Amino acid sequence: MAQRSYQDACGAARAMDLIGERWALLVVRELVFGPKRFGDLRAGLPKASQNVLSQRLRELEQSGIVRRVQLGPPASVHAYELTERGRLLESTLIELSRWGAGLPDESDGEMSTDAFMLLLKALYRPPTGEPLTARLGLRVGSDAFDVGVRQDTITVVRGRTSEADVTVTGTVAALRDLMFGGTPVRSAISRGAIEVQGDIRVAERFFPLFSPPTDDERG
After folding, report:
1. Contacts for 155 with CB less than 8 Å, ≥ 6 apart
2. With 56 labelled, which of 119, 152, 182, 214 sits at a CA distance of 20 to 30 A?
3. Is beta strand 134-140 parallel, antiparallel or unpaired with respect to 166-170?
4. Distance between CA atoms of residues 114 and 158, nearest Å
5. Looking at the 3D structure of the chain, how many domains does it have?
6. pTM of structure
7. Residue 165 in contact with residue 202, Cβ under 8 Å?
8. Any residues with CB less than 8 A from the CB of 57 and at least 6 apart, and which?
9. CA-to-CA distance for 81 and 65, rounded, in angstroms?
């Protein structure tokens, strides 16, 4: 591979040889919830140039982290997905998301939809009072996710569900505001920031269950 190597026998160094180049791990992040076409990857990583993104995808393919696939009808187009080896990086990304969530945000870009969904898995805190078992649909633009909550766990799967207790539609910014900005669900509905179908009480219980780690928790 053309990538630079640390030439270090440490496992962490060897891992960084493969995913330490700029944008590489963010490409993996964009593929955690399923395959994407090149154009979809560019939409999730708008500040990565086409040439750089192509190079990272080639390197990740050569490393056995990403592979090219052909999506079936009606699309019938080439896309990229994580291999089994690549999927093992999800837990690493969740920990990095959790660790970095409490740091000052100095970026001027919007968070991608997939980055936000990964953040849900990173920052979920089970309720301390009455347990919550629920299924939510989250829709952001043309993307849809099925989110399952059981007392100690949260699952996120790309795709629409007809079995949701409630479906919330909004931008990533609007959903983040519900989680971290203290905006009540009914207030966001009244000003048109989100749309809610189903049991609004589930949404009202769901969004306060997320918070960045404290300094002590980050160590």
Report:
1. 146, 147, 148
2. 119
3. parallel
4. 9
5. 2
6. 0.90
7. yes
8. 27, 38, 41, 66, 80
9. 9
β-strands 78-82, 66-70 pairing: antiparallel
| CA pair distance 90, 161, nearest whole angstrom | 23
Token digits of residue 52: 């750089």
Q: Would you give the end-to-end CA distance of the chain in angstroms?
A: 36
pLDDT category of residue 214 using cuts at 50, 70 and 90: low
- 121/68 same-domain check: no
Which three-class secondary structure state does DSSP give residue 135?
strand
What tens digit of pLDDT does each residue of 47-96 get?
A: 999 999 999 999 999 999 999 999 877 666 899 999 999 999 999 999 99
Residue whose tokens read 């207030």: 187
Q: Which long-range contacts (CB under 8 A, 24 or more apart) does 123-129 make?
A: 123/97, 123/98, 123/179, 123/210, 123/211, 123/212, 123/213, 124/149, 124/153, 124/154, 124/209, 124/210, 125/209, 125/210, 125/211, 126/151, 126/152, 126/209, 127/151, 127/205, 127/209
Task: Judge if 140 and 67 occupy the same domain.
Answer: no
Neighbours of 118 (CB within 10 A): 23
Report the DSSP beta bridge partners of residue 80.
Answer: 36, 68
Domain of 143, in residue numbers: 113-211
